[in-house]
Predict the structure.
Amino acid sequence: MRRWLLVLGCVWMSVLPCPAQVFSPATQPGPGTGDRLDHGLLDPAWFGQGPPWTHDWRADFLWARTGVRWEAPMLYLVPWEEPRFLSTGDVLDYARGGEVAEAIQGLIRTRLKAMGDLRLAATPQETPYHAVGRLVEARHIRQGSSATLGPMAGLPTQTWDFKVVDVRTGQTLLASHHRSVGGSAATWFTALERPLREMAGLPPPQAWDMPPDSQVLEDRSRIWTTPGLQLPPGGLVVRGWTADTDTGGLWKVWTGGLGASLATQTGQAILDRLTRGGLARLDGGDPTHLLDGQVFTAPRFLKPRYRAWVTEAATGRVVARYEFLPPLSTNPAGAVAERLGNHLQALMAAPPTAPVPVPPVQPGVAWEGLDRLQSVAGAVDKAWVSPRLSLAGRTLHVADWDAADLGAGADGHDRMLASFIGLRAPAWLFGALAWHGDRGFGISRQVGGLRLEGRVVRLYQTDPRKFGTAMAGAMTLGLATRSEGVLQLRVLDAATGETLALVEQTLVSFQAASDGIPYKSLKWLAQDLVPWLLEKGGRPAAQGPQIVNNID
């Protein structure tokens, strides 16, 4: 008993919130890393000269120049460079790094848009103030470790740099370096929001508060909508949910572990609920309204608050706010999704009598030549490659995937998981390609002479939440819970639209031996498809990037 009390005490002390500390880059380097901090992951040269680093429970390293005022409250977000770790990492770490980098950029964009009068420039010429970031490390928890060790296998981690620069002088105005454990970066951005507002001449951030005319429900949940609000069918896009807190210590740890998991489950459940009801769309498209949310916790609350808000896509104006306090249960995400979905469905203009199908996004070039696919041995099931395919000296545009085309027989669970894969696969590919540092061609998520596209054409994912499926899985050691997905990818010449390569892959997963088709997709894309593509494009797979700083 004493041993367990000692362990718990050590854990508690390690995560207690600490007052702001000041570090000098010249006096606190990691061993054997020159002037670098954070065990070699923080390179002060990337940020330039500035005030001493400060540290608190929200941001590991942060400094901001005082007395800076922008001429206009406008900021340009520079697309992050491809992942280039300052530590060792294999291709799965890089694939996760690609996904994480895009998720952090999405969080930054969302939070900046919520800062009232701050405008985001569409081009770098519109403002001299540019926000620049890069990922310097990511750790992907392996499937085998997760299956055998459970929580003891650890949580995925990611470390990144971020700065705001005046490009006229090259001077850095704000700098931060941070490591996130689990997945949430919401608390980190909260530390940046106040100095950013001061530079942009905006008022200080306001704490979350429901309008005074909110409707208070029996369980103290609250709802507020603008009078006369109507939401058009298929016009709502559900964006990612996050876990957040205003307190350090165990509550911050919670946001990166259980909180992040609850936020992901809630976002997926709400997406499924609103898609089945015809209100939300899976393809992104051109939405009229956006739905964001967070799972918030703090010592003053006995249980988490589930907060959501709807904004007009064109103006950024908040038109609805929600704060739910679901009872303690094994499925709080489902309860929140049902309550929020029911209220939003009631606001939908001209509710349909049947679910509205979400039409797939039509690609710029039709998927032709699929009849040329032939079974091949090796990394892919079926493939066709043009003799004109060559990657040397070109730039490969890793494009967003087309919407999944699963047919009428797919249910909401299948469509949701297909959308999950389609949204993340481009980032996985981008990160995996970045691992091959000496590949002899460029990669971009924006533009390129060659275009790498993909789509999910079939997906059947067993749902372990269903009683029959769970029983079958238990009785057959998971072998009855067979899931299957089919992915198609192609390489196009961006100028002519000519198809240069086609690939089709069937992925099979069993609950007892796998985390599902999404994990199978990540692993196959990173470990099999990318090396195959490099070989067929005349660029043999490299042995990984040149490590800038080799640390354990």
User: Anything to note?
Assistant: The chain is about 30% helix and 25% strand. Confidence is low (pLDDT under 50) at residues 1-34, 146-150, 353-363, 546-552. The longest helix spans residues 412-435. The CA atoms of residues 301 and 325 lie 10 Å apart.
